[in-house]
Design a protein that fits this description.
With 333 residues, this protein is of the alpha/beta class. It folds into two domains: 173 residues, Rossmann fold, CATH 3.40.50; 104 residues, Helicase, Ruva Protein, domain 3 (Orthogonal Bundle), CATH 1.10.8.80. Helices cover 47% and strands 15% of the residues. The protein has a five-stranded parallel sheet. It has a two-stranded antiparallel sheet with strand order 3-4. It has a two-stranded antiparallel sheet with strand order 6-7. The radius of gyration is 21 Å and the shape is globular. It starts with 5 loop residues before the first helix and ends with a helix.
């Protein structure tokens, strides 16, 4: 990548500052409804800007549904919620052909996947063929019904949730399918003061109202600006070093991880790190990526792209532990 001049970087900063002004308005609007989950909200906006999808893990009742529903309302987008169950069929997701007796022909009935913001609630409760139907739509951004192929509307964001508590009767996502999610975000309980505010909010008779502050077109325009954000070659090398450290840890003085790693991140990890870092820079009104952007998104981008051995599981080593060791060892530009 060609190194930009100081004047070019200043111009990019000015452009990003202007184009990203809606981020603060959007965050403020979401904050009227969502209390205590700022990290989750920021990651949803980040994925939306990067044109990615989110796999969210957390116990029930942490405002996961409320977050994406509120985001859809603030962007004038169409929201769909799909409760994944063992008896769900792919047609329940994508839609099907229905025979019209009056016209003596088949007509298309589109499913809930035809929306801008899709909540795939407890995705690991449905069978593999239903999961595949969703993941195919996520990847290809289109759905085929009969002889017709329909392009999904943009922006298109899938938030899939997993309940970490109950694993009976579930169908864990295969590694190759989990890799299609840009981020895997793990959220926890709110703080004491936040919980008090949540109680007050839910005891009040005042309706929660969200104003639409931007349009889907604003998001699509912002995505072009995000990709133009400057990333120095040294930052690119930093990303490559982190990803290759998950594959060949011994080459990065991390030989202790060799017996703990079954496989490392795919090239999707490198791409997602770069896009997520650019999106974060955009959200912070910067026209260039800094190493802290990579550090900030690294866990969410890589935690579901690293496979652990039985030895690691026996020693209670997690992928977050592996990433933490890599971040401490890989040289920062």
């Amino acid at each position: 990548m060609q190194t930009l001049s100081t004047a070019a970087i200043n111009n990019m900063n000015a452009k990003v500052l202007e184009e990203s002004s809606f981020v603060d308005r959007l965050t403020t609007e979401l904050g009227k409804v969502i209390i205590g989950q700022q990290y989750m909200v920021d990651r949803l906006i980040l994925s939306l800007l990067a044109n990615g999808h989110v796999l969210l893990e957390g116990v029930p009742g942490l405002a996961k549904t409320l977050a994406i529903k509120t985001l859809a309302a603030a962007i004038r987008g169409k929201f769909s919620r799909i409760q994944f169950t063992p008896d769900l069929l792919p047609a329940d997701l994508t839609g099907t052909l229905i025979f019209n007796q009056q016209k003596n022909e088949f007509t298309v009935k589109k499913g809930p996947i035809f929306g801008n913001f899709i909540l795939a609630d407890e995705i690991n409760r449905a069978s593999a063929k239903v999961q595949s139907a969703l993941l195919q739509a996520m990847q290809e951004r289109q759905v085929t019904l009969g002889d017709n192929t329909f392009t999904l509307e943009e922006p298109f964001l899938v938030l899939a949730t997993q309940n970490p508590l109950e694993q009976e009767g579930t169908y864990p996502l295969p590694e190759a399918q989990v890799d299609r999610f840009m981020l895997k975000v793990v959220i926890g309980y709110p703080e004491r003061e936040e919980e008090r505010l949540i109680i007050r909010q839910n005891m009040s008779d005042a309706p929660l109202h969200v104003d639409a502050v931007i349009t889907p077109g604003d998001i699509l325009q912002a995505r072009h600006v995000v990709r133009d954000i400057y990333m120095d070659e040294r930052i690119e090398q930093y990303i490559i070093d982190i990803v290759f450290a998950t594959r060949q840890p011994a080459d990065y003085k991390l030989g202790k991880l060799k017996n703990l790693l079954q496989y490392g991140s795919s090239p999707r990890g490198s791409i997602s790190l770069a896009l997520a870092a650019k999106s974060l820079a955009f959200m912070e009104h910067r026209g260039f990526v800094i190493p802290d952007d990579i550090k900030n998104v690294c866990h969410d981008v890589l935690r579901h792209r690293i496979g652990l051995t039985y030895e690691a599981e026996a020693e209670n080593v997690t992928t977050d532990d592996i990433i933490r060791d890599i971040m401490k060892t890989v040289e920062v530009p």
